[in-house]
Write a structure and sequence with these properties.
mainly alpha
Length: 117
C-alpha cells in the first residue's frame, strides 16, 4: 500500500491511502461509511427519541426544521474550529463531526419531507 503525505492550508497531516487492485473500491468505501452513519443515527434515535418531529424542549417555538439547521450550524462551526486547532487527533475529530453532519442532513431531509413547505 502506498501512502502520500498531503500538505494543506489547515495544517492537517494525514495520509491518503492509495488502494491497490483487489482492495476496497471507492464505491465500497462510500457504502461502508454510509452504513456506519446509518447505524449511528438509528442507534441515537432509539436512545434519545424522535427528534425529527419534535420541537426543542427549551425552545418549543422553534420548529424541528430550524432546530436541525441549528444543529448543523453547530457541527460546521466545530469543523472550522478543529481545522484551526492544534489537536493531536483532529483528523479523527473532524471525521466524527462530518459523520454527524451527514446524519443530521438525513434527519433534516426527513423533516422537510414531512413538512408542509
Amino acid at each position: 500500500m502506498n501512502t502520500i503525505l498531503i500538505e494543506n492550508p489547515f495544517n492537517l497531516n494525514f495520509q491518503k491511502t492509495i488502494f491497490r487492485k483487489f482492495q476496497m473500491s471507492t464505491a465500497d468505501e462510500i457504502k461502508k461509511k454510509f452504513d456506519k452513519i446509518s447505524a449511528t443515527v438509528v442507534e441515537k434515535n432509539n436512545i434519545y427519541g424522535d427528534i425529527v418531529t419534535s420541537n426543542p424542549v427549551l425552545c418549543p417555538q422553534v420548529t424541528p426544521i430550524y432546530a436541525m439547521l441549528v444543529r448543523l450550524s453547530d457541527k460546521i462551526s466545530r469543523v472550522k474550529q478543529l481545522l484551526e486547532s492544534d489537536a493531536d487527533n483532529k483528523v479523527e475529530l473532524i471525521d466524527a463531526t462530518l459523520e454527524d453532519v451527514a446524519g443530521y442532513s438525513v434527519l433534516l431531509s426527513l423533516c422537510l419531507e414531512s413538512s408542509d413547505l
